[in-house]
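In full, the data.
>
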Amino acid sequence: MGKQETEMLKGTLEGIVLAILSGRPAYGYEITAWLRDQGFADIAEGTVYALLVRVEQRGLVDVEKVPSEKGPPRKVYSLNAQGREQLSEFWRTWSFLADRIEQLHRAQTDSAQTDSTSQEEV
């Protein structure tokens, strides 16, 4: 994963994790495995666990300790009402930014095409 991709992922990972938890409760390793299956191969478990601690501290998730066959109980995270509100805000912000970035990209692409057409005519 390149530096730019890593930085962009840092800015959106919380929303991505909240979106995952909106589907069903999960524990940290499940979330990491799902992210890797979706193409985020370089994501570190520690990154996800640190994020889960932050969203728990901010009151966006409920946590239940579930016995594990191996080792200590697992912390299973589920999205609560405050987390759903945060996720809705994430999607609103994402839509706004994605629209603006796409407009900028189209304008830049159109400008580049116009410039190349003008150069071909010369």
